[in-house]
Design goal:
Blueprint lengths: L1 H25 L16 H15 L4 H13 L30 H14 L6 H14 L23 H6 L7 H9 L5 H7 L7 E3 L4 H4 L14 H10 L8 E3 L11 H7 L6 H4 L5 H11 L6 H12 L23
Antiparallel strand pairs: 1-2
The chain binds protoporphyrin IX containing FE and 2-acetamido-2-deoxy-beta-D-glucopyranose (NAG) (5 copies).
Length: 333
């Protein structure tokens, strides 16, 4: 009897150890909601108020701010490296061609200043960017997704322009290239189709997709996977070598965070090859079709889940990195 009790006890201890190990693993990144509870309890309020000020003046900033967080996370992890300015020796991520349409750095700097005035040297720029991306989206008109942002990221000290070429998926990627790009960041096929839904807001330069309209295979042709009526409209807006014109990615509702993106992709009206490619895989294709209909609509909830996963990519925690004083520059010691 005593032996049985002992065995049960050992079993329970092992179980507890195992559960702790699993929890620990899940928490290995160390980010948590409310991370600044003791050190800067009002941080979320300050960020929200400061972001709201910018958003009330320029609501279209939500799209580039969301995209900025994506670009930060895919290059060297979510460490604020996208925010660093070039130095005399190094060109930084900011100055890479894929940044062409990134804007809103002044929002991050403004929010950082507001946070610093209350809690100097405590909150990282990487965390501020993650919060601003969420807040800017949640301030758009209409129903919007909302998610809790785990915090505790530290800022990196390195930003190299070339890193963007190898880490950011370009708009001409096909489905297998997209899947492996996301997999290399620890994101799965569902995250790919869900996060692509970010293209429900914002605008694109013609140059990101004119390859589909003119000379697609070098025979003066157009991408056959693009709806021809839509292609005619796009050709009216974008001449072959146009690099300046902006078009709405989700025409008619590019300011609204809705499921229209999936409706368009399902109708072969996705703007980039990477959008259209979502129809070339069973899992992503099924998801597109499901979100395009009202039954089974889970986009908002899914988006929050995948944003949290994206926000965990390669984060610096603990003693790694630093808390930048100014988001555009590493600290000077
Ligand atoms: C799946 C791979 C992706 C590719 C290939 C891609 C590519 C692009 C390209 C080429 C643009 C237009 C840039 C321009 O010409 O101005 C763009 C815009 C945008 N992307 Fe993506 N993207 C991807 C994933 C994402 C993700 C994960 C998000 C966020 C969750 C995102 C959010 C946005 C937003 C909001 C814009 C509009 C920006 C603006 O209005 O300035 N994209 N994307
Ligand atoms: C840092 O870069 C941003 C955006 O490229 C620019 O607007 C700003 O003036 C730069 N700051 C300094 C001090 O050079
Ligand atoms: C500058 O570039 C070098 C080599 O690419 C890199 O090792 C260094 O960390 C970079 N410095 C910054 C501040 O990004
Ligand atoms: C995607 O592109 C790569 C590289 O060009 C190619 O090897 C692969 O076969 C393509 N996959 C699909 C599904 O088209
Ligand atoms: C189309 O592409 C082919 C092959 O790259 C090139 O030889 C031709 O000049 C291009 N035509 C136009 C109109 O750009
Ligand atoms: C906002 C910003 O920093 N844009 C830069 C993007 O990169 C180009 C060079 O490719 C710079 O000229 C822009 O200033």
């Amino acid at each position: 009897m005593a032996q049985l009790r002992k065995r049960v006890l050992v079993f329970m201890q092992l179980t507890i150890l195992f559960v702790c190990a699993v929890l620990n693993l899940a928490d290995a990144q160390g980010l948590k909601v409310g991370y600044y509870e003791k050190t800067c309890p009002s941080v979320e309020k300050i960020v929200k108020q400061a972001t709201a000020k910018f958003m009330s003046r320029a609501p279209t900033l939500a799209a580039p701010l969301l995209r900025m967080h994506f670009h930060d996370c895919f290059v060297r992890g979510c460490d604020g490296s996208i925010l660093l300015n070039s130095t005399k020796d190094n060109l930084s991520e900011k100055d890479a061609p894929p940044n062409l349409s990134l804007r809103g750095y002044q929002v991050i700097d403004g929010v950082k200043t507001a946070v610093e005035s209350k809690c100097p040297g405590v909150v990282s720029c990487a965390d501020i960017l993650a919060l601003v991306a969420r807040d800017a989206v949640s301030m758009l008109k209409g129903p919007v997704p909302y998610w809790k942002v785990p915090l505790g990221r530290r800022d990196g000290r390195v930003s190299i322009m070339q890193d963007t070429f190898t880490n950011l998926p370009p708009p001409f990627f096909n489905i297998s290239q997209l899947k492996s790009s996301f997999a290399s960041k620890g994101l799965n096929v569902k995250d790919l189709v869900v996060l692509s839904g970010g293209h429900t807001i914002g605008t694109s330069h013609c140059s990101s997709f004119t390859g589909r309209l003119y000379n697609f295979t070098g025979k003066g042709d157009m991408d056959p996977s693009l709806d021809s009526e839509y292609a005619v409209n796009l050709k009216k807006k974008c001449k072959p070598s146009d690099v300046n014109t902006l078009v709405e990615m989700d025409p008619g509702s590019f300011k609204t965070f809705d499921e229209e993106y999936y409706t368009l992709v399902a109708k072969r009206r996705g703007l980039f090859n990477s959008d259209a490619a979502l129809l070339d895989d069973k899992e992503t294709g099924d998801y597109v079709k499901l979100q395009a209909t009202t039954q089974g609509y889970t986009f908002f909830k899914d988006f929050g889940v995948s944003m949290v996963k994206m926000g965990n990519i390669g984060v610096l925690t603990g003693e790694a990195g630093e808390i930048r004083k100014s988001c555009a520059f590493v600290n000077y010691y």
